[in-house]
Structures are given as structure tokens and as C-alpha cells.
Amino acid sequence: MFFESWDGVIRTLTVGPLAYLSLLLLLRVSGKRTLSKLNAFDLIVTVALGSTLATVLLSKDVPLVEGAAGFAVLILAQYVITALSVRSAWVRSIVKSEPRLLYYRGGWIEEALRRERVTKKEILAVARSSGYADLKKVDAVVLETDGSLNVLGKVAADGLSTLCDVRGHPDGDHSDVG
């Protein structure tokens, strides 16, 4: 069906900008962290906000005020969970995963590759896309908490290593990084 009535089009053109503005306002008030993609929970909130916006735009059964309330509930839940995860190691352990070392100084970490379901070919592709034609120039490959792969080149180690909080790193010490 291509066209039902002008009522639906007018509703979408009216409710659309208002729903968008209400979401934008709530996101602005809640801060930058709301739409970050640092972990699976953040991704869920982002997808849920998009789904709620689409439902408000396209469903005649969901009034704008109810959609805005849905936005507020999702943003408040994200705010509360992230605030608790900053203050509580227990909540943080439930909500957030740890980054995982998959390749380190010339060696594949087979157990980590299996557990994280990442192949060597995927790592090679990420190394190439990061500009590395030779793994001898790669110090480490890390599967981050958001599911992305980071390739770290070899550098002189003078200060705090960015690998200090990575599971599987031989010198990893999680105590000073929250």
C-alpha cells in the first residue's frame, strides 16, 4: 500500500519534529555520555531510543507525550546505571566488559581468540585497515569493550601503558584505573 490518507502524513510531519526536538532536548540535558558507545549497555540505549523515535513517528497508537516519557525513562536508566558503574565495581562488572588482548608482541593469544570468537583473518584485516602491512610493527591488538578492534604499533614504553587495564596483558594492573 502506497498511500492511506493525508492524516498519517500530516501527523508524521507534525509529530516528527516535535519528537525529534524532545529527544534532542533530553539528550542535551543528560550529557554526552548518553550516546557514547563504550559498551553493550550504551548500544542498547542508543538502539532503544531510535526504536522509540520511530514508533512515535509512525504509530498512531503512541502519542507524543508517551514517546517523550519513553525517551526520558531510557535516558534516566542509562544515567543511573552509568552513575552507579562509576561508583561501584560490582555494578561496573555487570554492565561493562573488559578489553581483551588478542595479539601481543608477535604472538596470538589463542584462548582469547576462541573465547571472544575472533579469527586471525579478522585481526589481519583490522591491522591492514590501520595501515600495518607487517605484524612485526604491531605491538598489540585489543578487543575493546564496545566490540571494536584496536591495533597498537610498537613504541618506546616510558609511561603508563594503555594496556594496563586489558585482560591478558602480562603487566596489567587494574587497581589504578577505574
Automatic annotation (TrEMBL):
All copies of domain YetF-like N-terminal transmembrane, residue ranges: 19-81
Domain YetF C-terminal: 87-156
This protein's UniProt keywords: Cell membrane, Membrane, Transmembrane, Transmembrane helix
Stored Gene3D superfamilies: bsu07140 like domains (3.30.240.20)
Cellular localization per UniProt: Cell membrane
Pfam families given in the database record: DUF421, YetF_N
One cellular-component annotation, GO: plasma membrane
Transmembrane regions: 6-27, 39-58, 64-86
Membrane protein topology class: Multi-pass membrane protein
InterPro entries in alphabetical order: DUF421, UPF0702_alpha/beta_dom_sf, YetF_N
Family classification: Belongs to the UPF0702 family.
Stated name of the protein: DUF421 domain-containing protein
